[in-house]
Amino acid sequence: MAVSVASCCFSVVNASLKLQSSVSSPRCFVAASLKSTPRASNEKRKALRPDSSPKLNPEKKYPGRVRDVHRDGISGKGGDVGGHQKMAFKAFGSPKKEKKESQSEFREQQQTDPAKIHDASFLNAVVKVYCTHTAPDYSLPWQKQRQFTSTGSAFMIGDGKLLTNAHCVEHDTQVKVKRRGDDRKYVAKVLVRGVDCDIALLSVESEEFWKGAEPLRLGHLPRLQDSVTVVGYPLGGDTISVTKGVVSRIEVTSYAHGSSDLLGIQIDAAINPGNSGGPAFNDQGECIGVAFQVYRSEETENIGYVIPTTVVSHFLTDYERNGKYTGYPCLGVLLQKLENPALRECLKVPTNEGVLVRRVEPTSDASKVLKEGDVIVSFDGLHVGCEGTVPFRSSERIAFRYLITQKFAGDVAELGIIRAGEHKKIQVVLRPRVHLVPYHIDGGQPSYIIIAGLVFTPLSEPLIEEECEDTIGLKLLTKARYSVARFRGEQIVILSQVLANEVNIGYEDMNNQQVLKFNGNHIRNIHHLAHLIDMCKDKYLVFEFEDNYVAVLEREASNSASVCILKDYGIPSERSADLLEPYVDPIDDTQALGQGFGDSPVSNLEMGFDGLVWA
């Protein structure tokens, strides 16, 4: 079954991506689809610009960002009827010239009776967002890609602020907004983005823009079957659009753009590209959330998702407290459900409760107090069921990780555990998760260093998306998907490509290979590699790669050739600006460097079996 979930800011090109797996467990691919104008490009860029080919075979389209989706109540191996469903999350942008969709697709939208809209201000607070994006070129990290445009939706929340989706203004170089019934666009500024929760905050300085404006009121979490009205500027026209439906489900949901699991509201109101960032209202005219993605499958229709106001409030509170967005914390443990009575008896768990700690991430604070084999039976006094759920509202249950998302970075949680049959209470500091291979690059531009034409850069999901899996290779993909960081600041550094020159003869065909050591020293991250090279006084520069492949360069010849190589390829600098800063060692314990990157991976079973979920 081909299943996809689409975020809804729409652009010139809707890049649909193939759902495939590079390893044995099922994967879901997250596509940053805000792609725009096609251009002539080399073979490496075809994954980025699928519209550059006249005809694309859907089975050959490349995957994007990758993460696992664990659905409560779904078990079994990938491929079984009850197994994981492969899901693709797509974010769209909005073209200035877009072909009309078939009329049958638009008939699926349930149009709200205008007479039922209580007040005109109900709609006047919703604005259209015009964004120009200039994304980094991860394959050629010293430059940017060609700019493209998209449109989305936003709404006023007071104090001169607008709320929209983070993917609507990702890699923005210019953002403009237009009010309903106005023919003027106003320049907006992105104050903060919450990538994991897919929310962004905008401000508009023009006083004229705010004349007569009435901000929306944020309502409470709705109930099942409550009516919901979605307002925004989707494809199919230039004016505001209103669709109506009901709340179908409320549960922890996978967020496409942020690759995170947070509370989400499922609705059956039509959500289309361009609705992203638009509000969803209840019958009282209160905003109960932000439209942001849809679920698409041949077997389903009209399944849309809304970010609830609880997540919006968490984002705003985080920003107000810290002056920036710090992100959602995590516990940093891999948990196994305890549904089997014999398993509970073996672990000396007397009641039908608790989840087993299978793995603790070395970078989490939980590693200081939790051990493998511990059973978590309560979180801040709330009992955790054997299925990994906790009480939610009056008669519902929800995934245990929901409680963690109610905390802020730096908060302390009290865990009740059973260790070897003994009940204990422990305190754990919750912090954002450390990704060995990040889904998003802080600061926008990737790090790089060029030595004698050898281009080194950290492995990231955007780079994998650009290069495509066939070019990256199965071994590197396995590490990217399953390995965990052993210390904060750890990166997988790869040789991206070799810029051909006399000094690097014989190495021209090397690309996308992990470099493990430089002159016998284990490489911790890209900054550490740059530091080692700068401090090197040896005659030779020796790079050791995966599978015992070695590349050796003469140091003085390399230094002499660097200026010529940069000039020949039109590269402004041999390294990114962040690598000009003094190097700071990310760890104190050097014993951790004795292990290889692949020595502590999350196994295929752990990521592919629903009985095991990350908190």
TrEMBL record:
Gene Ontology BP annotations: chloroplast organization; photosystem II repair; protein catabolic process; proteolysis
Biased composition (Basic and acidic residues): 57-74, 95-114
Domain of life of the organism encoding this protein: Eukaryota
Keywords noted in UniProt: Hydrolase, Protease, Serine protease
GO-annotated molecular function: serine-type endopeptidase activity
Record's signal peptide: none
Ranges of residues in domain PDZ: 316-381
Gene3D superfamilies, per database record: 2.30.42.10, 3.20.190.20, Trypsin-like serine proteases (2.40.10.10)
Chain residue ranges for the region called Disordered: 34-114
Family under the similarity heading: Belongs to the peptidase S1C family.
Protein name in the entry: PDZ domain-containing protein
